Amino acid sequence: MNLTDVGPLESADISISILHIVFVVWGIPSTIFVLYYFVHQKQRRNGNANYFRVVYILIAIVDCLILATVYPVIQVLMNGRDEGVFASVVFCNVWGMVWQILPEMTVFLVAHMSISRLVLLIFPQYILSRHLSWLCPLLYLSFNTALK
Q1: Structure pTM?
Q2: How many Å apart are CA 14 and CA 78, to the nearest integer?
Q3: Alpha-carbon dihedral 5, 7, 9, 14, rounded to 10 degrees
Q4: Under DSSP, is residue 25 helix (H, G, I), strand (E, B) or coil?
């Protein structure tokens, strides 16, 4: 398909999908590298360093999942807005739910990390348990479902 043969809507769709492809091709390997780095980082005696290591791992996992959910959008935009996998009501509902939860989860995890760092600035002797950082996504999901 030549971009001169399509209308403005189609060329915008193709441009956006190419931009998505570039971000996914760059983002997934970069995020996997970040995940590999934090997973293989040595355990430290400082409990707070281990706590933030786990939070960074969670953020990298959620970012990988976000990048993986972009593929159906690329498919729809490249195929002239043909429904593709979105023709399935079940897929559409699950994808919509995942697409709402994952970006909010990233924001929640970053906010959680910022608040944790603020607590440590105020109380420098306080040690955060790394096991509590795994509860952060569950805490988000419980607040998210309670508010909706």
Answers
A1: 0.81
A2: 6
A3: 10
A4: helix
b/e per residue 95-120 (b: at least 16 CB within 10 A): beeeeebbeebbebbeebbeebeeeb
Distance CA 139, CA 79 (A): 39
Tokens 């989860």 correspond to what residue?
A: 105
pLDDT digits (tens, 9 = 90+) for 93-140: 999 989 988 998 898 889 889 988 998 999 988 888 777 777 777 777
Backbone angles phi, psi at 144, to 5 degrees: -65, -45
Q: How far apart are the first and last CA of the chain?
A: 44
The proportion of the chain whose per-residue pLDDT surpasses 90, expressed as a percent, equals 36
Angle at which helix 8-39 crosses helix 47-68, to 10 degrees, equals 150
Rg, the chain, Cα only: 20
Cα 24 from Cα 102, distance rounded (Å): 16
Classify the C-alpha dihedral 59-61-67-71 as positive or negative.
Answer: negative
Tokens representing 65 are 């999942």
Angle ∠(78,79,85) on CA atoms, nearest 5: 105
Residue 56 CA to residue 17 CA, distance in Å, equals 29
Look up residue 21 and give its two tokens.
Answer: 């492809």
Q: How far is CA 10 from the centre of its chain?
A: 28
